[in-house]
Amino acid sequence: MKLRYLFTTAGTSVWTHRTRSLLTILGIVIGVASIMLIVSIGKGAEKLILDQIGGMGADTIVVRPGKEPTGPSDFADTLFADSLKDADVAALKKKSNVPDLVEIVPAVIVSGTASYRGETYRPTTFGWSVELLSRMFKVYPVEGILFGEDEIRANANVAVIGAKVKEELFGIESAVGKNVRIKDKNFRIVGVFESHGQAAFLNVDETIVIPYTTAQKYLLGITYYHEIMMRAESPDVVAQTVRDIEATLRTSHKIPDSGENDFFIETQQGLVDQISTIIGVLTAFLSSVVAISLVVGGIGVMNIMLVSVTERTREIGLRKALGATNRDILSQFLVESVLLTLSGGLIGILGGVLLSLAASLVLSITVGTSWGFTLPLSAALLAIGVSVAVGLVFGIYPARQASQKSPIEALRYE
């Protein structure tokens, strides 16, 4: 039996009972559309996060204290770990230990609110090198200047604030030269960053940067660092530099050969690999859950095909009496089943694209940054393949039932 004839016959049957056919493939439509939406959101999230990580620079290396986090609760533990100290910074600065480092800056994180004349705001406050932040994220002061190494060495009470902090605390008036209060200490504002938004995992607009020495001594009363940020000479030497850093810190901390590190090292590529793996696993898990609707849709197709076989028993008998073979009947009903699920898959792809576009618009507004529409062609091709497979798997039993009917008994059927 010619393939064209098979599809024409199957299409006629599906169109004749189009309302029933549409209801039958509803599960397929929902399943495919949902999977397309999940893949699109997953890819969009991955692209957004990787773009943010890209802001760090491929030559950036970060060392944090404690064991590498394996869950959300572990991240808080790194704030209380005290394994990174001045001696470590001094050891890392020695060219004989880590020859390919060009910059080393420790950092501490300060929680709490900032206030000015009754106005309060909860920023992200860092004890850091504001010059490094400016170079790393290519963000520059729109007002005032950046503090430098002299202020860091002098434990100066100076600060550079982000555009959002300035807007919330000072409104339209100039902030430079005024004092902002952080943890009951006054800090003189020397500069205001231009509006920049998100950079890596940091929103520059919501940030206050003060000298890390000042944050340690006057705000936190600690002698350790929450992280040490470094830059290698080039991305090509990052891998070797990471090995040198690890060896230097293990020696500095007197960790035996069999002992575990009391610090962990992050690089841009390492973060990229972790994020891609996490999002890939999450997308696969959610897709497998949603795939249940495809199974339900397949069962619906099998059910309606069995009903169709029963309704068309006399037609089957007549076709066999006129010379149709069991294989012809099997092919006819199998193609009809595949056509049903394929139609559901195509409608689902269209629905998934529309839902993904809507989701990207909503998420762009919600997140406050551009959430690009991302839907790989491979996802659509996979959806088509899965739809055809569902039609074959759940259509084979009704098709076999139809092909094995006796023409004599079928013609007698009322």
Automatic annotation (TrEMBL):
Keywords: Cell membrane, Membrane, Transmembrane, Transmembrane helix
One Pfam assignment: MacB_PCD
GO molecular function per UniProt: transmembrane transporter activity
Transmembrane segments: 21-42, 278-309, 330-363, 375-397
MacB-like periplasmic core domain span: 21-247
GO CC term (a single one): plasma membrane
Recorded topology in the membrane: Multi-pass membrane protein
Keyword ATP-binding: no
Domain spans labelled ABC3 transporter permease C-terminal: 288-407
Location of this chain's protein in the cell: Cell membrane
Family recorded in the similarity comment: Belongs to the ABC-4 integral membrane protein family.
Protein name: Multidrug ABC transporter substrate-binding protein
